[in-house]
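=== Structure Prediction Worksheet ===
Name of assembly: unnamed complex
Input type: mixed (protein and possibly other molecules)
Chain count: two
Listed entries:
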Amino acid sequence: AQKITQTQPGMFVQEKEAVTLDCTYDTSDQSYGLFWYKQPSSGEMIFLIYQGSYDEQNATEGRYSLNFQKARKSANLVISASQLGDSAMYFCAMREGGRDDKIIFGKGTRLHILP
Amino acid sequence: KAGVTQTPRYLIKTRGQQVTLSCSPISGHRSVSWYQQTPGQGLQFLFEYFSETQRNKGNFPGRFSGRQFSNSRSEMNVSTLELGDSALYLCASTALAGTYNEQFFGPGTRLTVL
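=== Predicted Assembly ===
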């Protein structure tokens, strides 16, 4: 079963609008971490934001915030005031606790910001 | 502080050959993970090394192997290359293993198998 699901393969958004990229996850662990990465066309993965399963507050990093809904197992990325440079592939990822704690990535969402 | 470096950046090989990719983590980082990225399968975890020991392994055949040296630099090797091995191979480093720290990724090695 897929542990990380990103249901939006692609999105088109007008510049300066806010964007929400969806991510749902599946785990039976109580302790886990959720990450979002951006991958521009150059290929390099850029870390955006992290949310721990025990964090009560939603994580924020500049224009990025993570809408964490633990009961729904949802960790959506919100980008406020989108910019042309935000056009990229976005990946949601999870690291579970325990011995098998490798990071698992979703399939990604390709975001296009329109001028 | 220098970032994660990967060499070579681009590689073209033919079926049946073998290839070795190199990754130098951020100074002081002891954990290195490798990923294969393809359009069809997305990002798939290959393995993670920490203090010269393989700590975790993904679901790849034995043709894929790796190692880590005492200076934390890591290599991965793919033997008997197949067309399906064409991919972007990314390595990432973290200071410690098994924590929720962010992984810092290198620019990747793009491997093309003809």
